[in-house]
Write a structure and sequence with these properties.
With about 140 residues, the protein is mainly α. It has one domain. The protein is about 80% helix and about 0% strand.
Length: about 140
């Protein structure tokens, strides 16, 4: 009797891990969209830092003025890249095939990750310049 029960349960038990680990395609699309929007939200939280650093760089004295101008332009480029991404982002309709939505969200993830790289580079470089020029950065952190 035990052997018969095990033989009957075996197909169910072998398929169980696959059922537990797989998301539906719809769930994958929702997760992909959430990941893109989470990165967007993370970057939006840093927008004030861009503005504060630009203002601090505006006050950079002496020989660092040229470098400060370059860094301000990099910060402005980061801001513009974010605005461009936001204006171009269009959530696909739920009626669009899941495979096409997944491709769209993967493409958008690459684009927003690129914007994040611009943010990171421009903010880090601007902070370094502000610190070496002697302008306080406590409000930018």
């Amino acid at each position: 009797m035990k052997k018969l029960c095990l033989l009957l349960l075996l197909p169910l038990l072998t398929g169980l891990p696959a059922c537990l680990s797989l998301q539906s395609d719809e769930q994958k699309a929702e997760a992909a969209e959430k990941a893109v929007l989470a990165k967007h939200d993370e970057l939006m939280a840093q927008m004030d830092q861009l503005t504060i650093l630009r203002q601090q760089l505006q006050k950079t004295p002496g020989p660092d003025t040229v470098a400060a101008g370059r860094q301000r332009r990099a910060l402005l480029a980061s801001d513009a890249a974010m605005m461009d991404w936001m204006h171009r982002y269009r959530k696909p309709a739920d009626t669009v095939a899941v495979a096409r939505r997944l491709i769209y969200f993967a493409t958008q993830q690459k684009k927003i990750d690129s914007v994040a790289g611009l943010f990171r580079t421009s903010i880090d470089s601007a902070r370094l310049l502000v610190q070496t020029a002697g302008t306080p950065t406590s409000s930018a952190q």
